[in-house]
Model the fold of this input.
Amino acid sequence: MALLSRYGDKAKLIAGGTDLLVDMKNEKINPQYLISLMKITGLSYIAEEGDVLRIGATTTLRELEESQIIEKRYGLISKAVKCLGTVQIRNMATIGGNICNAVPSADLPPALVALNATLKIVGPNGERTMPLEDFFAGVKKTKLSVGELLKEIAVERPPARSGTAFIKLSRTAEDLAIVNVAVRITLNEDDTCREARIVIGGGVGPTLIRSREAEKLLLGKKMEEELVKRAAEVACTGFSCRPTSIRASPEYKAEVGRVLVKRALLEALKKAGGVVEDDERN
Amino acid sequence: MKEIEFTINGRKKRIAVRPKDLLLNVIREELGLKGTKYGCGTGECGACTVLLDGRPILSCLTLAVAVNGKSITTIEGIGTDEHLHPIQQAFIDAGAIQCGYCTPGMILSAKALLDKNPNPSEEEIKEAIKGNLCRCTGYVKIIAAIQLAAKRMRGERV
Done:
């Protein structure tokens, strides 16, 4: 912390380095100082306390992938991690880096937002918390102030009768996403929707998008196919991605996004124990 | 310059490095171990793969100062000219080497897999070597070589 306040914006924090060093090699950035977080041993952990899972910021993606707790009870995170990069990258890259680098196509943030993740941020003025959903300020921009760093990510364990799904579309699995979708739904006893969280990432705008409007459509209703389809359409309107994106055009992303959101919702519904009709025609 | 100490292929080394030195360059230029290859330099190809405390990582995206106190294994550390590692032997026997540039990284990724999982499925093998690009073989013989090595390492006489 002292180093960070001494060097201010002349310094960059480095964790796994898989993005930062590439940017330095490409001369996109040229920080005078690098401050390594990997020497702080207390920043790497996966701990479950009741219905909350706490993950230290420098926990590697491979450690998340190998965690039994995550595999069993936070399957959405497992799923997102497994479609990210290669073994080598996952051994190096950290959850904190995947979040703080604020790349719009990152795979973990949508899954974490769907699980209502909150961040613990430490800085010169002490600690503060912030929902991950509010953390991104733009392409490669976050709401971290100079001198602050991300310490911990906490996610809620989905309540009973919940289902989640994560779908990533990319050219190859290790490639950056064209669109990725993470959803979490919880059903009432009568199979109506109690809560829905629909998050779309993969570069559909400067930051990921949580579609509250689409979620609202589902609340209190039975998630029948027609309704799910409409929610997916609402969720995928108004993407503001760059038309020059090399991976896909905005039109393509919206088109394919609608299909993926629908599929993800139906998959989550099935897992939550709801009845899915007409499952064949995705 | 900063002095770091780490274990490379079982031997302790103490060496002075600059803050910006990459592990790959230290291994190749300072230590003279040329088995580890420079491919893309941006973490796409896996030619620079080494094992850090047994896990495959990319030495082209690792700062040398970051391995202080840790243990590195390169391709030179897993067998000798007289006694090749079973994975190395299997790559030869299965015809899994063509130009050879990807081979050191490929073998180290395979070693990390087999050390943890002695009987991997084809899918698990593919996942383990997904980060190692080969532009010659089409991967079929590489996968066959890893399966052959796995059998031999489990004690089967094949």
Q: What stands out?
A: The radius of gyration of chain A is 19 Å.
